[in-house]
Amino acid sequence: MKYWGFIKDPLYGYVHITEVEKKIIDTLPFQRLHRIKQLVFADYVYPGATHTRFEHSIGVMHLAGLLASSLPEQLSPEEIQEVRIAGLLHDVGHGPFSHTYEHLLVKKLGKTHEDLTQWVIRCSELKDVLSENGLDVERVAKLAIGKLLDKGRPFLDQIIRSAVDVDKMDFIQRDS
């Protein structure tokens, strides 16, 4: 994979990003994650608990790439890039106050943050960035929430969403 640059992460050090990942990170839907705290109000009790969905998403992308690269089932560089992007976008549907707000979302709209994640990927500038860079928008939207359901490669969904996935791997370490 050809990297464009890197982002300094407090857990993983320098996380390399590709040009398409940079374009995704630079979009408004992704940049808004800077303002959504991972642990909502926990910083009132634990002053160090100030990390955001933005940082978490960078970490998930990094771990997704490491896991995808180390699978015994060889993935192509394009598939690894797709998995990294799905990890990067997995939380793009979170609203203010993250999971604290979600019960209202379900009650009023019958939607979860995962439903909104797919909607944001399909209906925002992310769709254009993904399409312009040769990525299948629908496939990325489904993979980002672990619902690609690729019969030939069911393990792809498990990277992002399973009992032990990269999302949990990142937030357990980051939140502690």
Protein described:
With 176 residues, the protein is mainly alpha-helical. It has a single domain (3-175), classed as Hypothetical protein af1432. Helices cover 55% and strands 7% of the residues. It contains ten helices and two strands. It has helices at residues 19-25, 28-31, 53-70, 77-89, 98-109, 113-123, 125-132, 137-144, 155-160, 166-175; strands at residues 3-9, 13-18. The chain has a two-stranded antiparallel sheet. The longest helix is centred in the middle third of the chain and has 18 residues, at 53-70.
User: Which of globular, elongated, flat, extended, rod-shaped describes the shape?
Assistant: globular
What is the number of domains?
A: 1
What is the spatial order of strands in the main beta sheet? 1-2
Distance between the termini: 31 Å
Name the structural class: mainly alpha
Query: Mean pLDDT, rounded to whole units?
Result: 93
What is the count of β-strands?
2
The CATH fourth-level homologous superfamily: Hypothetical protein af1432
Helix content: 55-70%
Uncertain residue ranges: none
Strand content: 5-15%
Could you tell me the radius of gyration in angstroms?
Answer: 15 Å
Question: Total helix count?
Answer: 10
For the record, the CATH architecture stands as Orthogonal Bundle
- What string gives the helices and strands in order? EEHHHHHHHHHH
Instruction: Indicate the CATH class.
Output: Mainly Alpha
The CATH topology is given as Hypothetical protein af1432
> Largest sheet, described in full?
2 strands, antiparallel
